[in-house]
Amino acid sequence: MGEKYAVIGKSVPKIDGRAKVTGQAKYTGDLKLPNLLVGKILTSPHAHARIISIDTTEAEKLPGVKAVITHKDVPTLKYGISPARWDESIFCSDKVRFVGDKVAAVAALDDETVYKALKLIKVDYEVLPAVFDPEEAIKEGAPQIHDEYARNINTEIHQNFGDVDKAFAEAHHLRTDRFVGNRTYQCPIEPHSAISIWEGGKLTVYSSTQSPHYFQHYIAREFGLKMGDVRVIKTYVGGGFGGKLEPTGLEFAGAVLSKITGRPVKMFYDRHEMFAHNRGRHKQIMEITTSVDKNGKITGVYANFMMDGGAYTSLGIATAYYAGAMLPLTYDFVNFKFDMIRAYTNLPACGAQRGHGAPQPRYAFECHLDNVAADLGMDPIELRLVNARQPNTVTPNDFAVNSCELTECITKAKEISGWEQKKGNLPSGKGIGIGVGSFVSGAGYPIYRTNLPHASAIIKVHEDGTAATLYTGATDIGQGSDTVLCQMAAEAMGFRYENMKIVAADTETTPHDFGAYASRQTLMSGSAVKQAGEEVKGQMLELASEMMEVEVSDLDCRDSIVFSLSDPEKAMPFGEVAREFFVRKGPLVGKGSYAPPKLGGTFKGAAVGTSPAYSFAAQISEVEIDEETGEIDVKDVWDVHDCGMVINPGLLHAQVHGALYMGMGESIWEQVLFDDKGKILNPNLGEYRMPTAMDMPRITSELVESYEPAGPWGVKEVGEGATIPTMGCYANAIYDAMGIRVNSLPLSYEKVWRALKEKKEKEKEKEKA
Amino acid sequence: MYLPDFEYHMPATIQEACALLAEKGQVAKVLAGGTDLLNKMKHGLVAPAVLISLKQLEQLSNIEYEEGKGVLIGARATHNAICNSKLMQEKYLSICEAAHHMANNQIRNVGTIGGNISNAVPSADLPPILMALDASITLVGTKGERVMALEEFFVGPGKTLLAPDEIISQIVIPDQSCTGSTYIKFGLRRSGALAVVGVAVAVTMDGNVCKDARIVLGAVAPVPMRAPKAEAMIIGKAISDDLLEEVGVCASTECKPIDDIRGSAEYRRDMVRVFTKRALRKAINEGHV
Amino acid sequence: MEALVDNSGVKRYLVTINVNGDDYTRIVKANTLLVNFIRDELDLTGTKKGCELGDCGSCTVLMDGKPVNSCIVLAVEADGHKFTTVEGVAQNENLDRLQESFVDNAAVQCGYCTPGMIMSAKALLTRNPQPTEEEVREAISGNLCRCTGYVNIVKAILAAASE
């Protein structure tokens, strides 16, 4: 018992590993229910059009069709993330706003009939002028997408902390750069799916969701049901990355179809429909101005941003605020000004993709900072060390930072990557670059306005004491929260992980939790679980004290053995005590809940970005560029993370791998492309190029010692934080390799080729001159 | 996604298949591997009322050598069957490599060489190297067989000289006098990517002098195309880096690329320069066919 | 192949497809895809649908030992062939060493690509018991994974091979 912890800090196998490698794990699309119908949504072929009429008669006549619905059959209440921006309807009634907007739905006996019926629905449209560029959309006279939002401005932010003008006026050096991001899509490999069952006054929905509670809240609201009459059950989820955080329309339309037919209805998206539904990364246009003193210390930053929101708000208000809010977290500066416009366009709505609004601004800032370093003749790492945030500090936008080992992350990354030997010494075509970043460990405020705690948990020890079940609303979408939370429960109880069971993410059987977003579950759900486990342990020890005739204060429990601290020979199996507890007192249950303390300032938008704790990371990558073709070969990536105490190192490093993977795709290959009518040109996994196993570099993931006082056992997040520095890190390596900057994502081979070509042409001209 | 209904036939002989094609007319399509056809049908790009499966025509999968004729590849041979064929590895490593870099492993186990040719996709990987090696194809129809140089077969994207009642039965690669051949595919990811540019070459070297050369460009014109001016430029010359660069530049002026989501015409043109040069160098240096 | 004609004139075919060692005889339409046959007719839902175009590899099954995308194979074309799905990899209660290795090496996250990955890896190790890392990457390059960056999947396959 020499080790500090018995269960946490160990790479135990995933609790659902076996079910997933045998094919037994059932995802929503795998479920079959008696009398099940299948349904699909008909979407708009136009980017912007008035609906003149919808004729469903032919579809209804098709044998096997059980119901066809349009806006006339569903509630008209609009929904979205916040009351100020409820702008989305179950079905469009007046007009459609992007190619893929929802118009009608069908339920039928089988897939084939559904597809045939969709083709038989006749919709007459009057095509309207459309706008696809946010900078065009906000101009006077641009097509108006929502009547309520003049100049298509969905969100406008103006924040000003300290005195940026003064900082700029007194600057040793001032520099402005402009960068443009790209529209990318989460691309979980599992397509969205939902099964709705409306029986009597009760609605049950099985869904591939990241937040059963949020779905329950909005579904109940939409149909005027009590939350208690809506049950949302998460099945196994095949990845989310932010794309499965809000109801998709499959849940809403399926519910109505089920109510009408009296049968369960399974709704699903095809891959191209997922791309159209989107909610992926916003494309941001980012102009950044920074002033530094002669030592490279940042004295002021002005971020002037715009983002393409697409046709609806989705989670985009939060995205817009995050884009600025996270900037002064990574580096320490006090003067900060942030302007942002999120514009509506006639393209699919963007939402929250891994890292939410932060990765593109971080990409821009990390590139910008390398430019500043070059201007000053400083090593990029030195410049970062001068400005790196330190522990126990407060950002200008009022985020309180407790633990922060950013300096150590940078130093270690520098060491393990061989930066010292490589920087400036690599042969032509090779380059090395750094990016750093930071992220929240859970949002300080709930996803919708409520005073419910953010997380809660119940642990029930089985009557014979041989097993315990954790009941939690926390949502495992593949990242491994079920495993990590069971480890935490076992640690807190003094129990064995191998004997833990879990029931999770079912709004009827598990206690409330907001779900998987904002990297919140290890810290927040973990806090609730720890409390529940400790409550079990407390009750156990009290009874054990009687049974063993040892003072409670002298007892502890570890690895399913209750023992005397002063005389470890005095011991009793956990099971024996637990069984006796049940005999004498009934069920042995522990409860826990977690709400963060009041966080942040009082300015408009102060809530976004608040968190009980922040993670920090540094990444360095080495790339090789084919100078004739622009082809980029990423050779190596090193990630060093400060994510507090680690519960499961195996799963933690796996999160880093995945985050680097997604960041690499976004940096070099991934981009959703549209034609001039707003139709997606590459809504498939052949032409939307996520990296394959042959494209990935060697990845080294390392940690630094860290302890976060706000987290249970000192934990923080990792899943999203590791995505934040990635794009900047690759971009800087590519810059280092070729000596010129491509200021837009993705850094495609062709863009690199073009930049190199222009560089050569300029050099030739110089020679001539 | 949804595959529309169709009438399915599984003829026992190639003659029966041709007769069916003749009978059903334009609404019929031949189903070999299906990796391309079924996807097009799911997308609604084609809607054949009749599919005629080659499933039973096992003999069309053979890969063999016939003295005097050359290597005969049955049209139903899959890409992986070609890569893994000992005969092919011994005689035409360049074709094996081209087949190996297509799509992904699962597709290569199903997709066929006949399908790859008859689809006539400008970016297809096998036609350029087959054309560089002067391959011909055998077409079987209701009126009998005819043989055609592959080079003459393609008319435009998706368009060929295949008559409505004809099926490609085999690909014939004649015995070579060339000393080296290769195909380089330039795609935007290392697996599962279509060629942005594909360059195939076959060279006959005598010491450092190029006696003969065939250069074929893929994905840069409506059909895979020879680059005759570039070929003329290298034939009879001693190889040097400068010459290879000039030949590359020449090939880049001969091609007729378009802009699409994978690359601009300008980029493709320059990639023709780069990969013509690299392919020639590889074929000359590695010295295997 | 025997065919029945239904009331609307659509033909249905009697096929016998061997899956995981057992023959299944069913009546299918010509446009029935193998993936739907496996999932809907046989209820073997371990084989997943991710893209339906052969791009992602989630539906990978072994056809006569070779990995294929079951989303672009017709059930009528599968008639008479032998298939292995992920449900056929473990021997009764005992996981295959590949499956064990995936669990032990944290190679599974959301698990949706996992069955397809395992089938591609299984085919590789059968044909090439001691693959290099490059050969492993090549073999699974038709299987997209959005969670792992393939790092631990490659590790798991190499570990299973070295046992």
Strand content of chain C: 15-25%
Estimate nothing, just give the exact number of structural domains of chain C. Answer: 2
Structural class of chain C: alpha+beta
Give, in order, the helices and strands of chain C.
EEEHEEHEHHHH
Short description:
The complex is a heterotrimer of chains A (769), B (289) and C (163). Chain A has 769 residues and is an alpha+beta fold.
Structure description:
The complex is a heterotrimer of chains A (769), B (289) and C (163). With 769 residues, chain A is α+β, with helices and mostly antiparallel strands. Chain A has three domains: 17-24 and 454-594, Aldehyde Oxidoreductase, domain 4 (2-Layer Sandwich); 31-128 and 189-239 and 244-277, Aldehyde oxidase/xanthine dehydrogenase, a/b hammerhead (Aldehyde Oxidoreductase, domain 3, Alpha-Beta Complex); 283-444 and 602-761, Aldehyde Oxidoreductase, domain 4. Chain A is 29% helix and 24% strand. Chain A contains 20 helices and 28 strands. In chain A, the strands form seven sheets. Chain A has a seven-stranded mixed sheet, with helices on both faces. A five-stranded mixed sheet of chain A has the order 7-15-14-13-8. The mean pLDDT of chain A is 97. By secondary structure, chain B is of the alpha+beta class. Helix content of chain B is 35%, strand content 26%. In chain B, the strands form four sheets. A five-stranded antiparallel sheet of chain B has the order 4-5-10-6-7. In chain B, strands 11-12-13-14 form a four-stranded antiparallel sheet, with helices on both faces. A three-stranded parallel sheet of chain B has the order 1-3-2, with helices on one face. Chain B starts with 6 loop residues before the first strand and ends with a helix. In chain B, a hairpin with a 2-residue loop joins strand 8 (154-156) and strand 9. With 163 residues, chain C is of the alpha+beta class. Chain C folds into two domains: 3-88, Roll (Ubiquitin-like (UB roll)), CATH 3.10.20.30; 97-162, [2Fe-2S]-binding domain (DNA polymerase, domain 1, Orthogonal Bundle). Chain C has six helices and six strands, in the order βββαββαβαααα. In chain C, strands 1, 2, 3, 4, 5 and 6 form a six-stranded mixed sheet that branches. In chain C, helix 3 crosses helix 6 (151-162). Chain C is elongated. The relative contact order of chain C is 0.15.
